[in-house]
Batch of 4 targets.
Target 1
Amino acid sequence: MDKYLITGFSGFVSKHFLELLEEKKEIVSVVGIDINYPGFAYTIYKHVTCNFHKIDLLDKSQVDNVIYNFQPNYILHLASYSSVAFSWKNPVASFTNNTNVFLNLIEQVRLLDLKCRILSIGSSEEYGNVREEDIPLSEEHALTPVSPYAVARVSQELISKVYVEGFGMDIVITRSFNHIGIGQKELFVVSSFAKKLVEIKSLNLHNAEIQTGDLKIIRDFLDVRDVVRAYYLLLKKGRKGEIYNVCSNNGIALEEVLNKMVAYLKLEVNIIRDPKLIRPSDNKIIVGNNSKLKSETGWDAQIGLERSLEDIIHYWQKKHENIV
Amino acid sequence: MDKYLITGFSGFVSKHFLELLEEKKEIVSVVGIDINYPGFAYTIYKHVTCNFHKIDLLDKSQVDNVIYNFQPNYILHLASYSSVAFSWKNPVASFTNNTNVFLNLIEQVRLLDLKCRILSIGSSEEYGNVREEDIPLSEEHALTPVSPYAVARVSQELISKVYVEGFGMDIVITRSFNHIGIGQKELFVVSSFAKKLVEIKSLNLHNAEIQTGDLKIIRDFLDVRDVVRAYYLLLKKGRKGEIYNVCSNNGIALEEVLNKMVAYLKLEVNIIRDPKLIRPSDNKIIVGNNSKLKSETGWDAQIGLERSLEDIIHYWQKKHENIV
């Protein structure tokens, strides 16, 4: 029986990963760890047996115990301090926490000599500011990380490579681009837009205002359900030590994402650019090339942007109705 | 009056840096910090006033205090856990200690908003395994670090870039190749050879054996006196956020270094290759291009390899005579 350890279990990605595992109808065991309790039910599945441990991944002895007791053969390392904005305010905490949680994990797998594949989740932020002619970015593109968060992610990748080459460990590495979907917190831009627009809609406001950062930036958004299918396939079919972009291959300006949601809800809103929401050194355009992921694992995106956005809006509408 | 903070003060580089400062005949103030007491006299200078604080650079509050009290306008960050071999045995300690000591330092300079130039010392190990046709390596060459130590050094460089671009800090970055010279510990290969050969010579041994690692590897050795002149010039004339190779531009196999010392001492020795001294993933050849350092600072190497080796041998002979 396959045993999956999932870090960052209480984030929004792991619930979708559990649903994918359940769909596969294999009998699997999952242990989730996170510093926060999950906000979703994880014991409802028929094929997936899931346990949760509330631990701080910076606490090495607790991490060591979980790995020793569970002896996973797959680790999906979703945990991170993933906010770029936080990393500008707390550069040292962002860097050290991100790298330390990863090191605590892989070091225990190494010392126990576990036969265990680890999926190390990196970020498109690693590429930094790139030229338009280099879009879509392939995995060979040079990395010039421009935030403390991005530097931590590059470091994690370099550490992974050394553990694969120097210690023979089985680590597959992603550079995951922006993902969106049901359950994502409003800290993230698309959820934040959806939540605000749903509120405006429900209050029937005319000439409502919405505060935004820089809407000209172009990102590559992938539905979280496509993301977790990529993670599953990489755990099963990825090559160790290799890096894979997880992305849609399509760029879209935040402005267009916002406009699509405004149109879907049949709203009129005034968009106000708030300088406080502009980040220093923010990347203008990030779009990835996903051909390596496709050709090596058979993955393909199944959920288009329109459907993602509609599902996200419906999710926030349901949440709003429960509140009101 | 210029004020220099030197970390890793008790290592062998800082003594040579103090001697260079003294030669300049400027009145300067130096504070040295290190976890160990220095093994050399640092209060003997006429122009350089030097104080030492024994502190652990991982202890953020102590580092903060020294910087706050001294308010340096230059920081020469020599401190590191610089052994590649140690990093293979203790990958987590090597990575986290190296990155944490650097972060503690620059974060305090940032928070105090000091007008202070920092020289971040990196390593030729950052380049990793390179092809012979890429030798000598220029600063633009891709980095593929192959040891935990090298990954920490790349991370330090990436952090430096982010602090320069994102926070406007004044950091100049080196990639320092192997340096050799008087006072270097026998943990390092050339000192280790010199010490053993001096012992063999003094005992008048015939057919003595010397245990070595892989003698075919090619390195770029620079005398420490040339290294500290480069550091001084980079502090004065380097461009912030820029990376500079500090190297001789010449490659030499360890075998040839050993043979030169054997010949100088008129010895005959049997060279025994000890598999225990071979490191995993060791780089076969590392030679740097120093044209950026030369053209931007006016630096040039003044001490040839033969003179370096002779001075090192004389140093070990003096040490040996004091012991015997």
Note: Chain B touches chain A at residues 88, 91-92, 95-96, 99-100, 103-104, 107, 142, 144-148, 150-151, 154-155, 158-159, 161-163, 165-166, 280-281 (CB under 8 Å).
Target 2
Amino acid sequence: MLTIKPRIEACFSPREFHQYEKGFELIVVIDVLRATSAICTAIEYGVKGIIPVDSVEEAREYLDKGYIAAAEREGEIVKGFTMGNSPLSYMSPDLIGQTIVLTTTNGTKAIKMAQHKETVVIGSLNNLDSLTEWLINQERNTLILASGWKDKFNLEDTICAGGLIDGVLKSGNFDSDEDSSVAAKFIFKSAKENIFSYLKASSHRRRLRKLNLNADVNYCLTPNNLTAIPILKNGILVPLKHVEKAVES
Amino acid sequence: MLTIKPRIEACFSPREFHQYEKGFELIVVIDVLRATSAICTAIEYGVKGIIPVDSVEEAREYLDKGYIAAAEREGEIVKGFTMGNSPLSYMSPDLIGQTIVLTTTNGTKAIKMAQHKETVVIGSLNNLDSLTEWLINQERNTLILASGWKDKFNLEDTICAGGLIDGVLKSGNFDSDEDSSVAAKFIFKSAKENIFSYLKASSHRRRLRKLNLNADVNYCLTPNNLTAIPILKNGILVPLKHVEKAVES
């Protein structure tokens, strides 16, 4: 008997999403430096929900209405906002139970691009194992959308995508078909022993080093310091476990 | 004294070209399986010129006017044509001194996309060393445009791009800045000892195997069996050495 296994594939940038998305209703969005690392951190540390928005203007409107809003462009906090996408800033006890509006250069754009799909979850190196295990249990066609940097390929998202693909394929219950998935898995396997050193040539790490964000980079490149999986429900990123509990009850 | 070196970078698909092209007037177009391997072979074996065209319709118009015309789509020769993009078919003595019109799924599209640039040359694994040496001598910002497969990333073009980048950087007179270039170089270094085996998982190789094109694949994946460098002049791909001789005289 020939059984067709679900596929897990990687798409390297939002610009290529439409070439890959057909047949995939489960999308994992990744922006390791730093949007999705920040979102996973926020959800793990008790933030109630994150509303991703495309533009700084939209975030500003929410701010004016009294929302907590965060905005990052080009690696820096946008003028007029007090938060950007530093994961460390999302650990504050003041944010527990709060809803936060967020716009970033690449990550929130990728999330918005995928929002018409049945299921959109958020991945990072921080929640790698937890997300891998969950994806294996779903047994669904899964497309990993790397946010890249301004529609360009980037190394850190590719490593993370490769880590998810490598882990999910090890279950024996999935296949990969795309060259991008083969390359991502290969790059992850070469990088995994020392991701920080592997990325020393990465353009984004150089960009963040200039902005004195090495503590953020160290944090974002640390696999499995979190277990939370954020999921998009009605336009808001919320903890997956709450959604699953609601379905069970 | 700080000297700024010229850059050599890789762009993984025509869809991303506009994200990368700024500041580059020297473009290397690659479509290893099989358009650019075929073009390099044709020029090496004495074809006078190749006219790349976008559509099958355009190629058919040339055919009707009495031109030799070749057309490939989805890996196969288009109905009504006698040639596609098999490199082996371009070695025929009947083609010496002839001009051939060519349209292919990915390669000719990438060439047309780059044609507004000052210099467009054609790369493949077949002419890797010869092209590397020439690029080093140009000392110009160089962008390698991989044709990919229908705007998707592919492994064989990435290996070839990585080979060019690795070779050119070894001169010590160039820099690379993009993550795509770092990844391409890394993938080339891992693959170079046995490209054929490395590509066993590649989607395009599987596609061509189904079409019984293993001889073509073996040929295209053999580095340095050619030295010709095709260059685009007035919309026609001609031997670079003829152009350089004309400039000298």
Note: The radius of gyration of chain B is 17 Å.
Target 3
Amino acid sequence: MKERLAEVHHLRVADAVLGWDEQTYMPPEGAAARARVKATLNRLAHERFTDPEIGRLLDQLAARLEAAKADPDSDEAALVRVVRREYHKAVRVSPRLAAALSEAASQGYRAWLAARDANEFAPFRDALARILDLQRELAQALGYGEHPYDALLDQYEPDLTTAEVERLFARLRQGLVPLVRAISERLDAVDDGILRQSFDEAAQWRLTEEALGAIGFDFRRGRQDRTVHPFCTAFSPQDVRVTTRVAPDQFAFAFFASLHEGGHALYEQGLPAHLAETPLGQAVSLGVHESQSRLWENLVGRSLAFWRFFLPVAQRAFPRQLGDTSPEAMYRAVNRVEPSFIRVEADEVTYNLHIMLRFDLEKELIEGSLPVDGLPARWAEKMEEYLGITPPDHVRGVLQDVHWSQGLFGYFPTYTVGNLLAVQFYRAAVAARPHIPDAIERGDFSPLLQWLRTHIHVHGSRYTPDELTRRATGGPLAAEPFLNYIREKYGALYGVPAGSG
Amino acid sequence: MKERLAEVHHLRVADAVLGWDEQTYMPPEGAAARARVKATLNRLAHERFTDPEIGRLLDQLAARLEAAKADPDSDEAALVRVVRREYHKAVRVSPRLAAALSEAASQGYRAWLAARDANEFAPFRDALARILDLQRELAQALGYGEHPYDALLDQYEPDLTTAEVERLFARLRQGLVPLVRAISERLDAVDDGILRQSFDEAAQWRLTEEALGAIGFDFRRGRQDRTVHPFCTAFSPQDVRVTTRVAPDQFAFAFFASLHEGGHALYEQGLPAHLAETPLGQAVSLGVHESQSRLWENLVGRSLAFWRFFLPVAQRAFPRQLGDTSPEAMYRAVNRVEPSFIRVEADEVTYNLHIMLRFDLEKELIEGSLPVDGLPARWAEKMEEYLGITPPDHVRGVLQDVHWSQGLFGYFPTYTVGNLLAVQFYRAAVAARPHIPDAIERGDFSPLLQWLRTHIHVHGSRYTPDELTRRATGGPLAAEPFLNYIREKYGALYGVPAGSG
């Protein structure tokens, strides 16, 4: 069984290496052939994983473990449980449906690019309608409890339900919308001018690598390269790649993208190496993955303690630009809030409102209560409701994200799950090891990293996201810790009275 | 059939991308997991290609083509012929033997590294003996006419026989040994001091890219990266990667390695794109591949015409180092001859003697007439006989090449085949288009490249190496054109009387 799983894993890793190469170094004309190679690897991995022989082996192993009353936390029991879950999901997607989804994603991506070029929704319309039909078919094939969207969510965040997301998002909205409104009235309270100077690209690059090294990224087991869109990909815990993009007139972009991807990478480097070629050795969910990136990017990288340590390092790289600033001024600058159109540029306070908007629209689209043609207008309406602004065009509105063109419905909520969990995990770590903030101020990130290694990383997929969260924090995924963190931090930064939000 | 071949091809391409990444960018700790992924891709490619269903399909197709009296040069007929040949070779290697060869290569490589570290032959001895046993078994499995070495040769150079190599090498030896002796008496006639100055690495890099661009390497369909050992690998004609290494105190290394790999790359970029995912679209043999690299490296890059064009370009990059030199002085410097211990550093005149030595020893080892323990002494004896020098240690002797540790027996002769064919192809091109040297002097490489495209590249594996050579040059692989070229060029450079060699 382990041999069969390793084979599937190897095909997926090969696909991931080809994907990394495609984004980093592949010459432009290599794309067409590359797509065909990746399609073959994906098809073979799916074929091999859904081989009925794997199902029979899993049933046998499960029966044997039950008969032996095996410890459910043992590697064997956990592996059989996790693989059975994945297997039964995988076999529900017929080769015909998988091929149709893949074909629709290719067409969708091309249509989306054409729509963006034209800054019009129309060129994307039919492709999106086709994708939605297939997503509904996928939800039926996967099966669900209450809502077809449950099935889509479950692909990325096991066991998370639409009802639970609605409950969390309602609570967040209630807190965030008034806070954003209050901050919008005093935007000038925080100035980020120091971040918007000219910063040498090579010096920025070296600084991101210093920051990655400082937080514990192991360059013997990973590397950083340049791409248009930053990402993290892992081929094993011994080979984890992050990427970033350097903007010559903007300090924050490369730096926080590096910390963000570095957080993903620390998770990957900390996964259990002895299970690396099994599903048990993989990250448990996108939400938990995002919690690690957000924790290092925001809870650490946007804290005052961090800048008390790191500002002198940054000043050595940029004496002219940052020589006269203070840790407090840097802390304020990197935490500037402003409602804006583009999700990936959004600050900690407004970010989740972008996600809520997408969740609302996805649910309505999947249900069919929102027709595809009504999408751009509904987007504008929701932007006004949540952020008090109206996008001037489609590129800064409904066409900004690649996700829908790829058939990634149910994916967006995991970003907010990550934001909430980041605060919950960080609070639990500090509760267990109160010296963490002091250590950060001294440039020692190991107490925090060790806590994450022990309570999150080392478990791989052994527990469900819910079990993992309860074990690590004593409670379930929740909105309150995040809201408290945001209210406290941004209330102080913007002088907003405690009643707002 | 094409779908099945494409699948096998995609697995091989994935393996090649992973190999490229391993040499260029993979972090050090990633090696162990990478080896397992590559082993799976190789095993799957072999399993899929040797599927008996492919054999049945091939027999059906061959029968159908025969019945239809199909043109043997048609894509279909050539494809069936080439694939059948490959298929019947592949099925003769049992999965057990393939695994043993692969395992012995891993062990052999480790033993070779240990032997090099110790500068002793002993740590490599047993691993090499094991590899030789398996190579003999491989030769039996593959089958052969007269000599077991025929089977090993045929893997890399289809249809080339031991007897034919012996005939060619005897002719070459007869010409080269006296010539080397005569040159050895007047080594000071050519000075390469200008190449041994300090050359900025970044400027060298840019110059190699300028040279690659000039000869026709298409950077939209390829790229150059840094590795310890230069190589060329291709994922499709649209994605061809070369690598080189820059030595800061040596102009020639990076420059000629780039031209050499660039020659391989022009072949790959010129292979028939519509057959890219079939064996017909691949390079026909290692010897023909090497002919392309040597043609661009030596016949072009070490010609006076080339330096009349390129010296001003190099002078712009290195005004201090090269500003005072002339095309003639540069031509002399890049053609300095000196018997030396290391094959990969050898000049055009002595290089083939290094190959002959290896061929002699390989044949004796495979026959069993030379016991493994006698190898170092026999190496020294042959060096003295062919080059008049004795290696001071094993690292500069029998342990210098990685090939034997990898089980690559029968591979070395293809280097000399390449050297001979390079001259034959270049002469044929100039005979057909006499303005080629003038065009080179003006920096126009397209008449030469076009001839190679039409007479070599576009044919892929449609013809056997022998057929291809006869079609392109009007005759078979031969030693005379090479010897004439060497005698003429180096006789003039060293003032050696025509009678020598």
Note: Chain A has a mean pLDDT of 96.
Target 4
Amino acid sequence: MASRSIHLAVIPGDGIGPEVVAEGLKVLDAVAPSSGLAFERTSYDLGAARWHRTGETLPDSVLEELRGQDAILLGAVGDPSVPSGVLERGLLLRARFELDHYVNLRPVKLFPGVSTPLAGVTTEDVDMIVVREGTEGPYTGVGGVLRKGTPHEVATQESVNTAFGVERVVRYAFEQAANRPRRKLTLVHKDNVLTFAGDLYQRVLKKVAAEYPQVTTDYCHVDAATMFFVNQPGRFDVVVTDNLFGDIITDIGAAIAGGIGLAASGNVNPDGTAPSMFEPVHGSAPDIAGQGKADPTATILSVVMLLDHLGAAEAARRVERAVAEDLAERAGQGARSTAQIGDAIAKRVSG
Amino acid sequence: MASRSIHLAVIPGDGIGPEVVAEGLKVLDAVAPSSGLAFERTSYDLGAARWHRTGETLPDSVLEELRGQDAILLGAVGDPSVPSGVLERGLLLRARFELDHYVNLRPVKLFPGVSTPLAGVTTEDVDMIVVREGTEGPYTGVGGVLRKGTPHEVATQESVNTAFGVERVVRYAFEQAANRPRRKLTLVHKDNVLTFAGDLYQRVLKKVAAEYPQVTTDYCHVDAATMFFVNQPGRFDVVVTDNLFGDIITDIGAAIAGGIGLAASGNVNPDGTAPSMFEPVHGSAPDIAGQGKADPTATILSVVMLLDHLGAAEAARRVERAVAEDLAERAGQGARSTAQIGDAIAKRVSG
Ligand SMILES: CC(C)[C@H](C(=O)O)[C@@H](O)C(=O)O
Ligand SMILES: CC(C)[C@H](C(=O)O)[C@@H](O)C(=O)O
């Protein structure tokens, strides 16, 4: 069959980023021939090394090039040699905001055979999707500092939330919930303290809920939600939440679903006005970089999300099955290198 | 011996609040005769009922009376019949802010015999103290809403952090760490995103650390911290963090230490310019109110913190031992009512 050509931008980034991205691409190469897609890849040198060399994080010209791509695969950014926040804000968050990734999609799913730190939970108990808002909330960077370094210093951070921004992400979450068997959507916020933002989320949830009578809605304060993730994860099906709460709860999500080495994510622009970006939830882990110790599974599962996003559902399921099979057999095996895991999964995909 | 007279304000509050407070006072009565303290109690009718009756949450006159007390014991506030935030902001947070409870102290300790949702952890793995800032950060209530109810609505919440506020809580946390065997202090924040506030915390930590060379310091992003609470809780000894992050991580803390029924807290004014307030971490749980189902242990452990705060360390240890013994024997027993648990612990204290 004729395959659709996809321009894929690849940002390996820092630390273990390049290693895990290599395995993600290996698996993508294995599935591509049968996916109906032909990938044309462009690699972008962004991250700590470039910043040290040129002072650039995400230059305007590169951003413009990225806009012309169909999708982005990112490894990880951040390095202890760069001041905290420079690459996170200047590269990662800049991409999410400029490319209008208003949905940060993070499945929390315990695969069979994977060990979880929770006692007595089954794969059925841990199977949810977190829809994290990606373009506003406390992540705007709005804020500042007054009288820095003096005893009278004041430092502020502002969470900015708009009806426009909240409604589009809530709507997306309802769509997700409507298409899952349990059809349940839980809003996670802290509306008893952050009353202005919380009230906006609550009113929007209520309004959109009227259009989805088949979806049950629930509300949970963020503090209680973190507790329920640990002792009643089965409460959750689809979760919608703000940018910061989403950041926090998806790390607990990763922990209960077998660790950060397995947690995938998609920074999605559902309107298609700019390319979506797929990345493992984990960071650059400089302490283990270059040693072949990183688990590439989170990146490979991010490739699954990329394939789904591009409409190649069959190819996505094929990779997902290969990952599931590999995970199911891991328990008995000794430690494997990053490349060995990638090879094993790629082999299952082709085989 | 002559006993020191203590004026104790009691705010039973809503839902299960009155039930658990009754047991806390029962245990306090049991230990008081040997504590060197004589408690004179005044009960304050605050919470949902009063708000419905009068529209008041924490009237100025009551606040002034509270200022004249030596300490406060609070049950829980909040009820579904009251709009979210009214009692939380108007009563609980107003008390914390007005009485300058800048340290919100929350031990996370797994007692022997208590079951935790985490597989394979021991009591040694879960033994930390979270020092949560209590009077600033995202809890200030600063913020607002523009064009409410329109498609152009903007809702903001501002986190306000001051050198004054951060330094005093960080200093308190160093004192705690210096007095514990492991002498480790971890700052939990999100300095790669909330760069202004995070940088202030980091600089203050570094400055105060110079005065405590015996204390090891560490830093952890809040998202990673929540994960480590679940899969490596032993990493933490004393944690210092902002008001919102502290709210969130102490609920996971409660979950890993056996549940919200056991989590105690103190809203402490270390300078003694106003009374400190002790309360269980749990809420008013209206669904089980009035049924004798609530676990009063969190309140009784809050009484332990109250006794310690008042300098009655021996009495505090006595109650703590009674709780520990009761907990160690719970596993084998059937369900007991709120009052039965209180009776059992009070009996051990007297006996
Ligand atoms: C690196 C950091 C800026 C980022 C975030 O906070 O969103 C990360 O934690 C994530 O969850 O993708
Ligand atoms: C009830 C609520 C305002 C409060 C808080 O957020 O501080 C509670 O969750 C707590 O942790 O004491």
Note: Chain B touches chain A through 67 residues (CB under 8 Å).
